[in-house]
Amino acid sequence: MERAVFLDRDGTIIKDVGYLDDGSNIRVLPRVIEAIKLLNQNGFKVIVVTNQSGIARGYFTEEDVREINYKLKELLACEGAILDGIYYCPHHVNGIVEEYRTTCYCRKPNPGMLEAAAGEFNLDLKSSFVIGDNLADIEAGHNARCTAILLRDKYSWHGKNGTKIKPDYIARDLYGAVKQVVLGNLASKDDKGRE
Q1: Does 10 qualify as catalytic in the annotation?
Q2: In CATH, which of 3.90.180.10, 3.10.129.10, 3.30.70.1130, 3.40.50.1000 is domain 4-186?
Q3: Residue 152 reports pLDDT greater than 60
Q4: I need a surface site. Which of 71, 94, 142, 169 has the fewest CB within 10 A?
Q5: Model confidence over 114-149: pLDDT tens digits?
Q6: Contacts of 39 (CB under 8 A, 6+ apart)
Q7: Three-state DSSP state, 49
Q8: Annotated catalytic residue, options 8, 84, 133, 137
Q9: Are the C-beta atoms of residues 46 and 84 closer than 8 Å to each other?
Q10: Strand, coil or helix: what is 170?
Q11: What is the distance between the alpha carbons of residues 170 and 149, in angstroms, rounded to a whole number?
Q12: Would you call 8 a catalytic residue per the annotation?
């Protein structure tokens, strides 16, 4: 079985502009290309998992999201940074598009997208990592038995709003998180012997 690093999209790989509906507005964050290349060079599958409730809310279509994801994949590939897959959830319980107005297992913090990727790529989730800028990313990682890394200034993280959701690690940016994963400084769930 292989190991993966699951990455959130908006706010982790690219600038979060709210509801991204146009590929020309993609802005790759600093050192992201270096980070993804480092993962590629060290044998990790790199998989994006992203909630896209703008589909359910009627802001854009699934085709729009697929085009944006394709453009992102191409932009990164041109620089030698390869994404192995991109999974997205189009659902939201308060959506206005009836087809997508539902509570689903794929929307983070549920682990559906991670589990789907694990099946497709033969991944060992307990030895994989999730990196994101939101507590939903952390919770999805834990729900899939992955090690979860929150991108946030460690000095500003004190269990935000008294939440019980705690990241396994905190990093300032994606490159910093990836560097620690690759160097083996962050123990995976398997390394810790946790279920």
Answers
A1: yes
A2: 3.40.50.1000
A3: yes
A4: 94
A5: 999 999 999 999 999 999 999 999 999 999 999 999
A6: 5, 46, 178, 181, 182
A7: strand
A8: 8
A9: yes
A10: strand
A11: 5
A12: yes
The rounded distance, in Å, linking the Cα atoms of 160 and 65 is: 30
36-40, 136-140, 141-145, 181-185 — which is least confidently predicted? 181-185
> Which residue do the tokens 């699934």 mark?
62
Percent of the chain having pLDDT more than 90?
A: 87
Report the Cα 30 to chain-centroid distance in Å: 17
Residue tagged 């944006």 (tokens): 68
pTM exceeds 0.85 for this model:
yes
Which of 10, 84, 133, 137 is catalytic? The answer is 10
Query: What is d(CA 84, CA 48) in angstroms, rounded to the nearest whole number?
Result: 8
Alpha-carbon Rg of the chain, whole angstroms?
16
